[in-house]
Write a sequence for this structure.
């Protein structure tokens, strides 16, 4: 019985965990409930992914109201892939948060933290699972509001302003999305994504549809921090608690990319997106701007969290570059990098969270000689950094491979040169860390020798191991990405 | 043990050795024993593969499918066999030398040094036995990263600057030039496996496309130090001398020219390139590097810098030989990989011995040092003669083959370059020998270098001469590569 | 297409741009939230106005009526209003916290205070 309701339980369990935690008001119990909810979500995601791989798209009618009148959860290869990523990261961050949150958030607020965390997880999972456009908006706002609160838990008072800025920009983005959905509803009369896809070609007038496309693009671009709508990201990542940064960096923007992909290819369809409006070219231009400027800015940042936040903006540019290439290999690259970047940045920010625990702040003046005081943490950061650069043997290489392959197959040699050339900028900022950690003597503010507690180091290193594993055995990631790309280019699910 | 198991062992033994060294870090003698044991075991494994390769088979080992359609796999063929033999054999000697040098100079971070050394050898074995371009690229990058701690060993500002140049040039060329070349090959040919006769042979590319792709490969393989991407080599001289010996004789540069020959023979195919004349520019670039590097070497007073530029020059011998695209010159190219390794490592060993015994680094300081360090300078003489190409040293044999290849291809400028550079080699090596033996010693008196160092020196010098008289194995493997 | 027949859309656009302008142009954090709310209100209008069909009656099935107004946009907008209220509440809570931490809710003063902190190290 559970199995047939799995798509709904996937979202409902974390969602129900939140008020339960608030009612019980106990910090330790809150952590256990959060762990249980995220663990269940991970299990459900894996089972759903297995089901989708075996039997094809899973369709679940909420409340047994048949679609397109009722709300439908519709999980295909791409959706299952994103569910596994979000649930996996969520489940790994909870054990990490045990010590990290204890150090950064006052104890009387812990139960609130875990309640909002569960809300955020539920919202993100719901975004990936649902097949209804307005239901997606609801989950998007559940997740976003939870994110604003999570960021505001940061110790530094700048976290409050960062959360406020994100709130303003994020709400504008969500509202743009709603405007786009409204226009689509006006033209098709339905909110069910699959139904919309079949009705769109019959719409009488093209212009509202194109307007809807534009609004949804801008709205989701604000959420996924596409240049130049990325201004909220550096502050939000820098000042949020370490566990929150790790969780957000790995999941929030990725789910927004998923929504963009879903609308572009499953609702509007590749022909409309490429032929009617120059979306691929626009995405290409913005992505290149994102990659180049954000990578360059990252090199000059004074602390690790800010540096890797700008790196995230650049890496999101690589993902949208894959969408802009719009071929099978380009989309494979985009989907694969969604996952690979998620685990890479997740690993990085978890390790940096350990540094923050020991040093108080991850500024460069405090990490001199870190290779000596915290050897395992430093090594983990180096390996994750190599994945950012795209060294073979790491997950990041696989994404770069498909990006360059897509560009070469399109005959865009200049683009291939750009992708590999900008990897060298990543070498510059990763090597800033390496030289500070290994070639400099420990300074007065470097923490005393000692790794962060195992509860923090183990989840972080599990993610680092995942970076290496998915760089060598790509059957899961590339397989799912290719199937998703084929589905997207082939038409509506 | 089956051949596939030997291949796996060749990769796992140095890696396990690195782990063992890490565990034994606290007890130096135990740690050094682990290094030597791993080196000896590795050489035994590599030797064990020789009979199969000589008989014409190509032992394979498939690990996993890394990307759809592209495997992480290994296949042993004659060129890789030769490279692996040189690298694993010289690791033993280099380890003995390292023990003498690191202890004699009381260097810090010795455990880290030996760990990175072992990992570098593991990467080298991966390059030597790679079955396809992706596997080669994986271990090629791993070698760059694992040798960076070795180059920046001293940790001071000079080391940091040298390390930046080293990493910048090597990663820059490999990520920006080599990787697109590999991906383009995959897009064009649908396979990355090394095929005798060239995997691109059937792809029917235009001259321009073939030439462009070849350029991406040749300049992308930065470890071969083709100008203008040679700057990393002199920059890496900030490393301790055993590291320079490893870099410039055993692993890194040899991986570079090995990759060059492998790409020309197994990716493009000698006949394809010769027929389409797409590689006509390559002998010119290589020839320029040979002469220009030799000229810089002439004017360098720092001994290691002179040896560095000599290496840049000698590496382009191999590139030139491969670019001549005749069977005889390919034999010479393969043979020179071995010949230069043995000769150059002797010279670097001597430079390190001189530094350990007398703290002298400049050529102008070396008056009379031959009287105080006869074994060292004797070995230096042998190494120099080999690099110049004088019998009875093995360098003569490889040069002979390359010259024959140049005549067969009727490329008279190439022959002229080879003869000219021979003269230049003599011009920058022989004066060192002369002042060492025939001028009066200066400065404070000192003795020979520590025993371990001298042992290593004599061993490689002896090998240089021995290989002249007994070139059987390397020559057979080299001829196999060329299809003779 | 006259102004009169599409006047709901004109109001929508007016509210949208007014709201966005307030968000961008005003430095006071509370005023920004007001602008945001105005912006969100325009969307409510965008959904509801087209829901009233010409000649449509209330959406309760009754004898003799064929055309009913669409109830779905109302449902959607009730949800959106709730989301908007939650957002506004959260935003105002953040403004209160910012006021406690910085002593001011003017954007330029907050940015200046942060710059002073950063320069002080």
């Amino acid at each position: 019985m559970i199995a047939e309701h799995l798509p709904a339980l996937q979202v409902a369990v974390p969602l129900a965990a939140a008020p339960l935690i608030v009612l019980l008001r106990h910090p330790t119990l809150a952590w256990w409930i959060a762990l249980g909810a995220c663990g269940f979500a991970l299990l459900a995601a894996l089972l759903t992914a297995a089901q989708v791989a075996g039997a094809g798209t899973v369709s679940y009618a909420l409340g047994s109201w048949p679609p397109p009148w009722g709300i439908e959860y519709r999980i295909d290869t791409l959706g299952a892939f994103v569910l596994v990523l979000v649930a996996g990261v969520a489940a790994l961050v909870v054990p990490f948060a045990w010590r990290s949150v204890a150090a950064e958030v006052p104890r009387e607020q812990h139960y609130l933290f875990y309640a909002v965390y569960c809300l955020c997880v539920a919202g993100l999972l719901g975004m990936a699972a649902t097949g209804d456009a307005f239901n997606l908006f609801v989950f998007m706002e559940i997740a976003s509001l939870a994110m604003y609160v999570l960021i505001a838990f940061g110790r530094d008072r700048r976290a409050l302003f960062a959360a406020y800025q994100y709130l303003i920009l994020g709400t504008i983005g969500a509202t743009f999305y709603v405007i786009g959905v409204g226009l689509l509803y006006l033209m098709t009369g339905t909110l069910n994504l699959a139904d919309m896809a079949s009705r769109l070609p019959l719409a009488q007038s093209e212009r509202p549809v194109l307007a809807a496309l534009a609004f949804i693009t801008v709205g989701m671009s604000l959420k996924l921090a596409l240049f130049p709508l990325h201004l909220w990201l550096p502050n939000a990542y820098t000042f949020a608690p370490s566990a929150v940064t790790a969780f957000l960096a790995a999941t929030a923007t990725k789910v927004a990319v998923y929504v963009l992909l879903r609308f572009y290819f499953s609702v509007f369809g590749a022909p409309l997106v490429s032929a009617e409006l120059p979306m691929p070219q626009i995405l290409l231009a913005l992505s290149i701007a994102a990659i180049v400027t954000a990578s360059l800015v990252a090199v000059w940042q004074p602390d690790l969290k800010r540096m890797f936040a700008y790196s995230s903006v650049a890496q999101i540019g690589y993902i949208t570059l894959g969408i802009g290439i719009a071929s099978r290999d380009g989309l494979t690259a985009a989907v694969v990098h969604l996952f690979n970047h998620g685990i890479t940045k997740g690993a990085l920010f978890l390790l940096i969270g350990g540094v923050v625990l020991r040093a108080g702040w991850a500024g460069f003046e405090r990490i001199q000689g870190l290779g000596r005081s915290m050897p395992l943490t430093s090594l983990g950061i180096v390996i994750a950094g190599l994945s950012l650069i795209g060294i073979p043997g790491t997950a990041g290489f696989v994404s770069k491979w498909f990006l360059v392959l897509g560009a070469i197959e399109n005959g865009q040699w200049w683009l291939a040169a750009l992708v590999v050339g900008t990897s060298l900028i990543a070498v510059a900022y990763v090597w800033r860390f390496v030289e500070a950690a290994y070639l400099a003597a420990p300074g007065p503010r470097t923490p005393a020798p000692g790794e962060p507690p195992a509860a923090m180091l183990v989840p972080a290193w599990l993610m680092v191991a995942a970076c290496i594993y998915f760089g060598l055995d790509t059957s899961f990631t590339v397989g799912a990405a290719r199937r998703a790309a084929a589905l997207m280019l082939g038409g509506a699910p | 043990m089956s051949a596939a198991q030997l291949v796996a062992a060749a990769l796992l033994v140095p890696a396990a050795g690195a782990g063992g060294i890490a565990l034994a870090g606290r007890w130096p003698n135990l740690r050094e024993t682990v290094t030597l044991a791993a080196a000896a075991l590795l050489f035994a494994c590599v030797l064990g593969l020789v009979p199969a390769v000589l008989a014409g088979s190509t032992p394979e080992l498939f690990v996993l499918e890394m990307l759809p359609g592209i495997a992480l796999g290994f296949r042993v063929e004659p060129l890789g066999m030769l490279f692996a033999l040189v690298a694993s054999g010289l690791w033993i000697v280099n380890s003995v030398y390292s023990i003498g040098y690191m202890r004699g100079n009381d260097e810090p971070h010795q455990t880290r040094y030996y760990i990175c050394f072992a990992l570098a050898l593991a990467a080298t074995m991966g390059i030597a036995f790679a079955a396809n371009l992706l596997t080669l690229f994986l271990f090629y990058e791993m070698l760059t990263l694992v040798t960076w701690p070795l180059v920046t060993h001293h940790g001071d500002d000079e080391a940091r600057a040298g390390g930046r140049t080293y990493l910048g040039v090597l990663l820059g060329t490999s990520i920006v030039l080599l990787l697109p070349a590999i991906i383009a090959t995959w897009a064009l040919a649908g396979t990355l496996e090394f095929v005798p006769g060239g995997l691109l042979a059937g792809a029917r590319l235009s001259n321009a496309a073939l030439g462009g792709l070849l350029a991406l490969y040749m300049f992308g393989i930065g470890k071969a130090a083709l100008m203008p991407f040679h700057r990393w080599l002199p920059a890496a001289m900030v490393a301790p001398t055993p590291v320079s010996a490893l870099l410039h004789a055993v692993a890194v540069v040899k991986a570079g020219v090995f990759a060059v020959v492998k790409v020309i023979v197994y990716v493009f195919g000698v006949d394809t390139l010769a027929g389409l004349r797409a590689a006509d520019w390559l002998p010119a670039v290589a020839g320029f590097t040979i002469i220009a590097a030799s000229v810089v070497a002439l004017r360098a007073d720092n001994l290691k810098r002179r040896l560095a530029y000599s290496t840049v020059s000698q590496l382009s011998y191999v590139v030139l030989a491969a670019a001549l695209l005749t069977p005889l010159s390919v034999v010479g190219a393969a043979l020179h990989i071995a010949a230069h390794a043995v000769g150059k490592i002797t010279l670097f060993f001597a430079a390190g011995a001189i530094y350990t015994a007398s703290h002298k680094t400049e050529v102008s300081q070396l008056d009379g040092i031959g009287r105080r360090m006869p074994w060292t300078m004797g070995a230096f003489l042998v190494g120099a003669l080999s690099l110049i190409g004088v019998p009875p040293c093995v360098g003569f044999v490889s040069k002979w083959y390359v010259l024959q290849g140049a005549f067969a291809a009727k490329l008279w400028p190439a022959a002229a370059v080879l003869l000219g550079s021979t003269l230049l080699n003599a011009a920058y090596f022989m004066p060192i020998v002369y002042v060492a033996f025939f001028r009066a010693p200066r400065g404070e008196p000192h003795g020979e270098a520590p025993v371990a160092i001298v042992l290593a020196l004599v061993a490689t010098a002896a090998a240089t001469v021995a290989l002249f008289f007994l070139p059987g194995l390397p020559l057979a493997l080299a001829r196999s590569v060329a299809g003779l | 297409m006259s102004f009169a027949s599409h006047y709901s859309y004109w109001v929508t656009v007016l509210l949208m741009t007014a709201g966005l302008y307030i968000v961008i142009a005003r430095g006071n954090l509370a005023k920004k939230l007001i602008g945001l709310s105005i912006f969100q209100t325009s969307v409510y209008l965008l959904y509801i106005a087209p829901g009233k069909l010409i000649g449509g009656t209330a959406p309760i099935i009754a004898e003799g009526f064929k055309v009913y107004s669409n109830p779905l946009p109302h449902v959607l907008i009730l949800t959106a209003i709730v989301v908007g209220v939650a957002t506004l509440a959260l935003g105002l809570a953040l403004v209160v916290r910012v006021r406690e931490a910085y002593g001011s809710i003017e954007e330029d003063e907050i940015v200046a205070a942060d710059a002073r902190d950063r320069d002080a190290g």
Q: What stands out?
A: Residues 280-484 of chain B form one domain.
